[in-house]
């Protein structure tokens, strides 16, 4: 078996660069409202999307273009033009959900492989065979499918590639087939504009139809986020997944997540994959890094457990937590300066989180110190200075002044601090 692909989200061009720098083999991204993430789709123009594809290919990596919305009749002429225009940019695959769009994509761009979106909810080899007969090269499995079922699909259809989500947000509904957002705010989930209504706190009432009395059901704060699904985290199960020998790609959710999230999740799963192939897999190693990202609590979902076998997939207390660490700054692409994301102060030790497989050396000068402590690289500033010589005692988020680093660091390195709790 060849090494599994690690597929990361690219919500914009910078996040795409970060994903590739932190160890992704491929990224997925979209442009326009035909993608299921309208907000991230707006981050790309057609021109910048083509530039992103060329950049990715220059790195020897792949880009999968999302066309996974469910179009209405009025949108079809625009969809045809969209597919034709993106196909000319030579992405490595189209991610498609609707059978009609599969047929349309094959007609317009028969040379672009089709990957079937998780939105299609493939749970069995019968469904997988139908899509395979339609020319689909890869199935992105439904979130609800088990690893054993995927083994059966691969047994019946050995030529068909299988991709599974291993990390990121989980939907309250079946792989995103949800109407809550549509009903409450008119924002349609399967057209890319979900308002995440399932993350909201709700108050429950009981209505007596005979008397017309409305009773408020008293609750503690815990229990009001009744539809808030925990985030998926299968890092501890990467060995089990790869041992199966049937999975071709591990996918990380999160095109609307932060740059830091993209970097940390990509680097962590890259490490887990490499540890597996080096016979050094250790499930306990990966948890701490993933805990540094904002999350809703973690669950291992349904790939290794049936839904009825567990009752820990909902976070009833709150919609999201901050994680164990806060990003305080992000290093520029050229590595010479950083921009503040929280608070940068003098003489404070900050962790350095660098792209995969890169290292630095300890140093000390009048700007600051870079050193290793307890197995982590750290930085401490003696001077917060802009390239034109302006000096600060402290920098806060929102300040757009670039701050000079003590030495050139790998591009897109993050400075972070532990959250005081």
UniProtKB/TrEMBL annotation:
<dbReference type="GO" id="GO:0008233">
    <property type="term" value="F:peptidase activity"/>
</dbReference>
<dbReference type="GO" id="GO:0006508">
    <property type="term" value="P:proteolysis"/>
</dbReference>
<keyword id="KW-0378">Hydrolase</keyword>
<protein>
    <submittedName>
        <fullName>Peptidase, U32 family</fullName>
    </submittedName>
</protein>
<dbReference type="InterPro" id="IPR001539">
    <property type="entry name" value="Peptidase_U32"/>
</dbReference>
<comment type="similarity">
    <text>Belongs to the peptidase U32 family.</text>
</comment>
<dbReference type="Pfam" id="PF01136">
    <property type="entry name" value="Peptidase_U32"/>
</dbReference>
<dbReference type="InterPro" id="IPR051454">
    <property type="entry name" value="RNA/ubiquinone_mod_enzymes"/>
</dbReference>
<keyword id="KW-0645">Protease</keyword>
């Amino acid at each position: 078996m060849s090494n599994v692909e690690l597929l990361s989200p690219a919500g914009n061009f910078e996040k795409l660069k970060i994903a590739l720098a932190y160890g992704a083999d491929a990224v997925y991204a979209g442009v326009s409202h035909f993608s299921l993430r309208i907000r991230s789709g707006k981050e790309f123009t057609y021109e910048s999307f083509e530039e992103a594809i060329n950049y990715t290919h220059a790195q020897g990596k792949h880009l999968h273009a999302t066309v996974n919305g469910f179009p209405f009749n009025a949108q079809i002429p625009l969809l045809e033009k969209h597919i034709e225009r993106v196909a000319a940019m030579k992405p490595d695959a189209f991610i498609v959900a609707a059978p009609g769009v599969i047929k349309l994509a094959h007609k317009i761009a028969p040379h672009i492989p089709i990957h079937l979106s998780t939105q299609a909810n493939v749970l069995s080899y019968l469904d997988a065979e139908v899509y395979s007969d339609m020319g689909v090269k890869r199935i992105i499995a439904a979130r609800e499918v088990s690893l054993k079922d995927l083994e059966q699909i691969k047994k019946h259809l050995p030529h068909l590639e299988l991709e599974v989500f291993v990390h990121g947000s989980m939907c309250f509904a079946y792989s995103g087939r949800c109407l809550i957002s549509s009903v409450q705010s008119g924002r349609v989930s399967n057209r890319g504009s979900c308002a995440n209504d399932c993350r909201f706190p709700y108050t429950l009432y009981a209505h007596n139809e005979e008397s017309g009395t409305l009773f408020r059901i008293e609750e503690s704060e815990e229990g009001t986020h009744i539809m808030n699904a925990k985030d998926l985290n299968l890092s501890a199960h990467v060995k089990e997944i790869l041992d199966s020998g049937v999975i071709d790609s591990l996918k990380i959710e999160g095109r609307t997540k932060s740059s830091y999230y993209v970097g940390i999740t990509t680097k962590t799963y890259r490490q887990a994959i490499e540890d597996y192939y080096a016979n050094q897999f250790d499930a306990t190693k990966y948890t701490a890094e993933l805990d540094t990202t904002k999350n809703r609590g973690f669950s291992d979902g349904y790939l290794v457990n049936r839904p009825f076998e567990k009752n820990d997939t909902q976070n009833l207390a709150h919609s999201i937590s901050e994680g164990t660490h806060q990003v305080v700054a992000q290093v520029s692409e050229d590595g010479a300066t950083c921009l503040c994301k929280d608070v940068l102060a003098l003489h404070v030790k900050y962790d350095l989180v660098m792209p995969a497989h890169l290292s630095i050396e300890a140093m000390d000068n009048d700007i600051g110190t870079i050193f290793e402590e307890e197995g982590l690289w750290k930085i401490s500033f003696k001077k917060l200075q802009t390239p034109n010589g302006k000096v600060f005692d402290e920098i806060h988020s929102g300040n757009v002044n670039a701050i000079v680093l003590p030495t050139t660091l790998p591009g897109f390195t993050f400075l972070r601090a532990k959250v005081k709790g």
